[in-house]
Design goal:
The protein folds into 2 domains: 301 residues, Protein of unknown function UPF0759 (TIM Barrel, Alpha-Beta Barrel); 34 residues, no CATH class. 37% of the residues lie in helices and 16% in strands. It contains 12 helices and 10 strands. It has an 8-stranded parallel barrel with strand order 1-2-3-4-5-6-7-8. Strands 9-10 form a two-stranded antiparallel sheet. Helix 8 links the parallel strand 5 and strand 6. The longest helix has 20 residues. The two termini are 18 Å apart.
């Protein structure tokens, strides 16, 4: 199983202001992304939730990251049931909006033809990443008020249809999707749509929290998003930035337990993405680095080791070179032993 670990965003204000992750020379968005990509193989783009990025911006992301780097992109908020404002739409599409008395509006308030144009513009913004082979999942984090009912199912299916050429991950945030009576139906619905189910780690007991359902629904991918476990800030009033809500530092023991669940989540053929969404200062980056080390330590522990037939000292897997292994095997003096 291939596991990619990264964080939600690389340019959060509290992260940059903390000066705990980026070196002094990384003082521009471009330099920060270049440095981030030397530390992690995956990042989640969250600015696309607030406004559709320009294709030139996405091209810059592709140009500043290594060949095997992966970017998951959050879907524009209009598509996920959240309110938006006219000022975040591209100017030419903004001019097509009908007169709306409210300062913000929802998907249902937009004429069908304009909706189609907004979908198309969003897909165009993804094209540079897809062309570079760096686009991972397009993540639909649906609003907490999207219920498990006929309208909710219809809207999710519509989003999947509009993005049918992409790998979609979906994150439901209303308990109706995962209560005891409907959990199986929701997983079957996700499998029918061939979308990636999102395993969510976060505080429990709130109207907008759902249980961690450690299941995979896609043929190739699994996704785990870690929001932290801070009950006091989960629905904090007056929060102006995400780092105020997702202020949580995972202790190593919790990350070790999560690593064990990640390993059991999917078969060897899967690629699992783990995204740290706790983001006060460098919490996400530190926790992601720790999780990578834990996963690697667990992987090394699973590797077969070469031991002598006379029970001579074990050669650690980390020191076994191909040449050494071939020589020992040729001499028929060593056998493999599973941990």
């Amino acid at each position: 199983m291939k596991v990619l670990v990264g964080t939600a965003s690389w340019s959060d204000k509290s992260l940059v202001a903390s000066k705990k992750f980026y070196p002094k020379g990384a003082s521009t968005p471009e330099a920060r992304l270049r440095f981030y990509a030397t530390q992690f193989p995956l990042v989640e783009v969250d600015t696309s939730y607030y406004a559709i990025p320009l294709a030139q911006t996405a091209q810059g992301w592709a140009d500043r990251t290594p060949a095997h780097f992966t970017l998951n992109v959050k879907a524009f908020r209009l598509f996920t049931g959240h309110a938006t404002t006219a000022k975040v739409l591209p100017p030419d599409l903004r001019a097509e909006l009908p007169a709306i008395e409210k300062p913000s509006f929802y998907f249902k308030d937009v004429p069908a033809a304009l909706r189609e144009a907004i979908w198309q513009r969003f897909k165009e913004s993804l094209e540079p990443l897809r062309a570079a082979g760096k686009l991972g999942m397009v993540h639909f984090q649906f609003a907490p008020w999207l219920l498990r009912n006929r309208a909710g199912h219809a809207h999710v299916a519509h989003c999947v249809e509009m993005m049918r050429d992409y790998t979609l991950s979906v994150e439901f945030r209303n308990q109706t999707w995962f209560d005891d009576a409907h959990l199986g139906e929701t997983l079957a619905f996700e499998r029918e749509l061939n979308v990636v189910h999102t395993v969510i780690d976060g505080p429990q007991g709130f109207h907008n929290s759902v249980p961690p359902v450690w299941e995979s629904t896609h043929i190739d991918y699994a996704l785990v998003r870690l929001h932290g476990r801070n009950h006091e800030t989960w629905n904090i009033k007056g929060a102006t930035v995400a780092s105020q809500r997702f202020d949580y530092d995972y202790p190593d023991a919790e990350l070790d337990a999560i690593a064990a669940r990640v390993e059991r989540l999917a078969p060897e053929t899967f690629t699992t993405h783990v995204v740290m969404n706790n983001n006060n200062e460098d919490q996400g980056q530190r926790n992601a680095a720790t999780l990578i080390r834990i996963l690697e330590k667990r992987r090394q522990a699973r590797l077969p080791r070469l031991v002598s037939r006379d029970h001579e000292p074990i050669v650690p897997a980390t020191l076994q070179t191909d040449a050494l292994a071939d020589a020992l095997i040729d001499k028929s003096e060593w056998v493999t032993e599973s941990p």
